[in-house]
Structures are given as C-alpha cells and as structure tokens.
Specification:
The structure is a single chain. The protein is mostly helical. It has one domain (7-56). Helix content is 75%, strand content 0%. The chain has helices spanning 7-19, 25-56. Helix 1 (7-19) crosses helix 2 (25-56). The longest helix has 32 residues, at 25-56. The protein is elongated, with a radius of gyration of 18 Å.
Length: 60
C-alpha cells in the first residue's frame, strides 16, 4: 500500500524515525499507525462497555 504525504510531513517523519532509532521512515510510520489503531480499538471497546452499563441501568 502507498500513502501520499506532503514533503514537510515526510521530512518530519524520517527525522523522528532516525532520532528514535528506527531503520526507516516506513517502519516508524507503521509503528505509529499500529499504536493509533490500537488506541482507537480500545476506545471503541470502552464505549461499548459504557453503553452496555447504561442500558443495564435503564438509561438507554
């Protein structure tokens, strides 16, 4: 898969990858995406749990 990003963002991405010891900007970008997706999935699960609790209490 390819993702188009502007040159400023690309430079920042590669600079941070180098600063944090990643082998490439691509590896760093992949790691960032994995973290964000994991956090979003956790948020969805928390939302589902909250909704279930509210339903049990009769609020929904």
């Amino acid at each position: 898969m390819e993702i188009d990003i502007d040159s400023d963002l690309r430079e920042k991405l590669f600079a941070r990858a180098d600063r944090y010891g990643f082998d490439s900007g691509e590896e760093y970008a992949s790691t960032i995406l994995q973290i964000v997706i994991s956090e979003l999935e956790g948020t969805e699960a928390e939302d589902d749990d909250l909704e279930g609790r509210l339903e049990d209490l009769g609020y929904l």
